[in-house]
Amino acid sequence: MTENLIIQEDNLVWNKPSTLLDVPMHYCPGCGHSTVHRILMEVVEELGIADRTIGVAPVGCSVFAYHYLNVDMQQAAHGRACAVATGIKRVHPDKIVFTYQGDGDLAAIGTAETIHAANRGENITVIFINNGIYGMTSGQMAPTSLAGMQTTTSPFGRDVQTMGYPMKISEMLAMLPGVSFVTRQAVHKPALVRKAKKSIRQALEYNIKGMGFSLVEIVSNCPSNLKMTPIESNIFVENKMIPFYELGDIKVPSEVL
């Protein structure tokens, strides 16, 4: 009987957006990247901007976005996504340009490019995945690794006296006048996924209006390099990362205050 059921549009719970390629994702089980890919591409489809959207992803797990996002994409060298996005936007001011970056990329080797693009108020949107660790290259300590956090380069835990404090890059960028919108969200619970999608939509809407630099930080997990199961890594995000990286809007445009 179920084989003969006709799915009515008003009964459809979810459908793969046309902006997401129909290929299997190969991310580690429980990784947040696939969820962010989906909601990002849902927003692009809903806004009707797929034909004029250009994404930039550099080195790291973010580089795999090219395999899944059905929009024009450009690769950048490690840390240089904001610089490349700046060039694309200035040559094609009518395009909607976004970057998709991890914490080791955006907040470490790419710190200068990120800060200066933000300070110039470049009209680009940055999707920033913060899982507190280098995901692709075996789990080294990232600028966002928590104090006391064990990684392959801090096996006894991050010592802030010698290794510095975790960087709250979103709060840093929010202070710059060229930045219009900064928010921090998460995707390890259904309700949080909905909030993250809303924030991505807001950022792209501000982009379309030409309101300057916007950033959506997603606090996520990395089960493989945290040496945890997906469920354990989600608990780590909830109990350890979010108390330090508090969720919510950090800066919103004055027109919506």
Describe this structure in words.
The chain contains 9 helices and 7 strands. The termini are far apart. The chain is globular, with a radius of gyration of 18 Å. The protein has helices at 33-47, 81-91, 103-109, 111-120, 160-163, 169-174, 190-208, 223-226, 230-244; strands spanning 53-57, 72-75, 96-102, 125-130, 179-186, 213-219, 248-251. With 257 residues, the protein is of the alpha/beta class. The protein has one domain: 3-Layer(aba) Sandwich (Rossmann fold).
User: Please, how many helices?
Assistant: 9
Low-pLDDT residue intervals, each spanning 5 or more residues:
none
CATH class: Alpha Beta
* Percentage of residues in strands: 15-25%
Q: According to CATH, what is the topology?
A: Rossmann fold
CATH architecture: 3-Layer(aba) Sandwich
Mean pLDDT: 93
Q: What's the count of strands?
A: 7
Classify the helix fraction into a percent range: 25-40%
Amino-to-carboxy terminus distance = 53 Å
- Judging from the principal axes of the Cα atoms, what is the shape? globular
Structural class: alpha/beta
